[in-house]
Amino acid sequence: xxxxxxxxxxxxxxxxxxxxxxxxxxxxxxxxxxxxxxxxxxxxxxxxxxxxxxxxxxxxxxxxxxxxxxxxxxxxxxxxxxxxxxxxxxxxxxxxxxxxxxxxxxxxxxxxxxxxxxxxxxxxxxxxxxxxxxxxxxxxxxxxxxxxxxxxxxxxxxxxxxxxxxxxxxxxxxxxxxxxxxxxxxxxxxxxxxxxxxxxxxxxxxxxxxxxxxxxxxxxxxxxxxxxxxxxxxxxxxxxxxxxxxxxxxxxxxxxxxxxxxxxxxxxxxxxxxxxxxx
Amino acid sequence: xxxxxxxxxxxxxxxxxxxxxxxxxxxxxxxxxxxxxxxxxxxxxxxxxxxxxxxxxxxxxxxxxxxxxxxxxxxxxxxxxxxxxxxxxxxxxxxxxxxxxxxxxxxxxxxxxxxxxxxxxxxxxxxxxxxxxxxxxxxxxxxxxxxxxxxxxxxxxx
Lengths: 279, 158
Description:
The structure holds 2 protein chains of 2 kinds. Chain A is an alpha+beta fold. Chain A folds into 2 domains: 6-106, Beta-grasp domain (Ubiquitin-like (UB roll), Roll), CATH 3.10.20; 109-252, Orthogonal Bundle (Fumarate Reductase Iron-sulfur Protein, Chain B, domain 2), CATH 1.10.1060.10. Chain A has 11 helices and 9 strands. In chain A, the strands form 3 sheets. A 5-stranded mixed β-sheet of chain A has the order 2-1-5-3-4. In chain A, helix 3 packs parallel to helix 7, helix 7 (175-186) packs antiparallel against helix 8 and helix 7 (175-186) crosses helix 10 (225-240). The longest helix of chain A has 16 residues, at 225-240. In chain A, 40% of the residues are buried. The model of chain B has no long low-confidence stretch (mean pLDDT 90). In chain B, helix 3 packs across helix 4 (77-105) and helix 4 (77-105) runs antiparallel to helix 6. Chain B has helices spanning 14-18, 30-56, 63-75, 77-105, 123-126, 128-154. Chain B is mainly alpha-helical. Chain B has a domain at 30-41 and 76-158. Chain B is extended. Chains A and B meet through strand 4, strand 6, helix 5, helix 9 and helix 10 of A and helix 1, helix 2, helix 4 and helix 5 of B.
């Protein structure tokens, strides 16, 4: 793409729920260096067509709202620069495998329901301790590293949009939910692995995956759901052979760390805890 | 008053996305090609199995019937080429199946979740299973060519 001001044609797939009409609309946008697809779509809304509907929030790849298919691949509009696409025509479509509400906005209710299905929270046998915590659940940095990758998930739905199985099976839990199931099953602080395995161990759960690895390729956060699903299967395989043993981390006081010599004490607090509570 | 639920547009990819190796047009994924080929060769083998049962069931009608049907396949050029294609399908499906069993049931070659790069990269794509796929593709191709030489040699074409 040449330097300086340049016009790029945007071809957007639109849908009007009131009339049920689906059509392609084209817009010319003057792009600048560093302009993202989201910036361009907002410019279209501001300058030429305020009826174009899209969903976005943070503009920096954290909220996972602006997932859409850009030039044939599911991407976050805020993380995709028009210049990097390198084409004079940018084709923007709503994410497939999700029902479309209007234009580029998809209905993610079913997606979140599947996420909820795998119980994405710590389950402990001692509920009383969990509700009114007195101490901490210990987790070493090495143990945290096991799940760290999967905790980066922002639930943007790009993996589900890329998945060849989600394309034909509406009941399939999807790469996002299965990766999160694995994230909680391997979490050392969690004791609810048996409940989660019951949810994912069926023909619409982890065994429906065909390891096409498209989910891992499109993930904007490098979460690698493909890896998580294979490791989840390995875990369930071991669990059904009664070889899977997991000892949840103990409830213990925080680890005492010695201050290294030569590091000064922190300055005194400007606001005392009692004062903060009163305020 | 409850909000009226808008009419949703069904946008499921369907078979168009399921068997499309160029979707998503992100990074080229060998695994996606392997998945599609595995699926198609699997359907091919399921259909072949019916034909195989039909042919081998001739044995029940005596030696004459068995030799008649086998010679009709071996004398037909389409039959010989078909057997060669069948051999390629079996080799690919079998070898890729070994890779899938290793990766899916035993979690071999999909990478270690603890080895986290910054920014994070999909380990399963760069893992050893990808290398294994290429090894199997090369080995399978050699086996396919060797099988072709043997089959065509027996047919007297070489």
